[in-house]
Amino acid sequence: MTYVRDVGALARKDLLLELRARDTLPAMLLFVAAIFVVFHFALPGTPSKLETTGFLWVAILFTALLGLGRAFVPEREQRMMDGLVLAPCDRSAIWLAKSLATLAFLAAAEVVALPLYALFFHGLDGATVAAVILADLGICAVGTFLGAMAVVTRARDLLLPLLFLPLAMPIVVGAVGASVVDSPGRYLGFLALYDLLFAVVCWASFEYVVAE
Amino acid sequence: MLTARRLGKRYGEKRVLRGIELALPRDGFVVVTGPNGAGKTTLLRICAGLAQPTEGTIERDAAREQVGYLGHEPLVYRELTALENLELYGRLYRVPERRERIGMLLERFGLWEARHDRVASYSRGMTQRLALCRVLLHEPRLLVLDEPYSALDEAGAELLDAQLAELRGERACLVATHDPARIEPLASGALALSA
């Protein structure tokens, strides 16, 4: 129960910071909208569903990357990680809270992105929406973990995509598969398994990421 | 409370601390002095548990929640208010009667009127006062203070003098400063580092 309260307090802090600074969400919204507009006008004729599904996932992945790159900015600029690491709460609570906050920003961006996609390209089915939800969980869990690793390095802006994109490949495979096949159960199961596996790994090893 | 034996720290090839011996009893008050680059901050970070030594040993008879650390950064979020920052730390440190304790500290350090203002709008001195509130919030048994007087005006410095005098003999204090004369009367020991 204490753990849940710690996660709640930390996630609330992240949401409050975004509400005040408005650094992340507007950038994510503009980026994802711009991508769809660019794709819409750049593609000649009517692209197939298979092609546009690929664009959707590219857009989601890079929008998430934008948010993940900003996730630990307050902690980096004000050395706040020292304060959080010294607190007696379980350090994985920092990761979980940050993942939940990033998930909230990504979900908010998708509330705009998915209708735009449907407007410009093809309608969305239930399997695609389910894949988006499951992919978001994996993206935020892994991306937040890697963001915490990258933020302490000088090459953080370069390092995060380099670490994150290869690890996000299974998400893209599972998500695209779930969006285009007739029976997406296997792909959705694969995404759920990825989420579970990486969430456990990130949760268990975050302690070592923030310790010197 | 804190014992360091032959403590050393290297960052790659660069050695910043070597052969430090330190014994800080439960009610001790040790002042750490030394020129810039002598390793005061590194030593204090090791003592607070934020860094690990590369040589020697350190024994700390205080759990994480019993350490109060003030570094060069105030460790408060600039986009949150003073009250929100202290509420966050109060929750994480499970401070009993949190609201009362926060109110008392903000009153004592002259920040009560500005409690709903964002820290970004604070002066450097006010931010330092808030950082001191943060450090004292959970009534730590071990206080590790790195240049606590920096940015404080005379009134703020006197407040801190009074606070440290109150804590002397009750808590273990390790204070790094460039102005040792100010807290010399409180000190039970001194550690001089050389560059």
List the helices and strands and how they pair.
The complex is a heterodimer of chains A (212) and B (195).
Chain A: H1 2-21, H2 25-42, H3 49-71, H4 73-77, H5 80-86, H6 92-120, H7 126-151, H8 156-180, H9 185-210
Helix pairs in contact in A: 1-6, 2-3, 2-6, 3-6, 3-7, 3-8, 6-7, 6-9, 7-8, 7-9, 8-9
Chain B: E1 2-11, E2 14-24, E3 29-33, H1 40-48, E4 55-60, E5 67-70, H2 82-92, H3 98-108, H4 124-136, E6 142-146, H5 154-167, E7 172-176, H6 180-183, E8 189-192
Parallel strand pairs in B: 3-7, 3-8, 5-6, 6-7
Antiparallel strand pairs in B: 1-2, 1-4
Could you describe the 3D structure shown?
The complex is a heterodimer of chains A (212) and B (195). Chain A is an all-alpha fold and 212 residues long. Chain A has nine helices and no strands. Chain A has helices at 2-21, 25-42, 49-71, 73-77, 80-86, 92-120, 126-151, 156-180, 185-210. In chain A, helix 3 runs parallel beside helix 7 (126-151). Chain A is globular and about 55 Å long. Chain A starts with a helix and ends with a helix. The relative contact order of chain A is 0.14. The model of chain A has no long low-confidence stretch (mean pLDDT 93). Chain B has 195 residues and is α/β, with parallel strands linked by helices. Chain B is 32% helix and 26% strand. Chain B contains six helices and eight strands. Chain B has helices spanning 40-48, 82-92, 98-108, 124-136, 154-167, 180-183, and strands spanning 2-11, 14-24, 29-33, 55-60, 67-70, 142-146, 172-176, 189-192. In chain B, the strands form two sheets. In chain B, strands 5-6-7-3-8 form a five-stranded parallel sheet, sandwiched between helices. Chain B has a three-stranded antiparallel sheet with strand order 2-1-4, covered by helices on one side. The longest helix of chain B has 14 residues, at 154-167. Chain B is globular and about 45 Å long. Classes of the chains: A mainly alpha (212), B alpha/beta (195). The interface between A and B is medium-sized, with 23 and 28 residues.
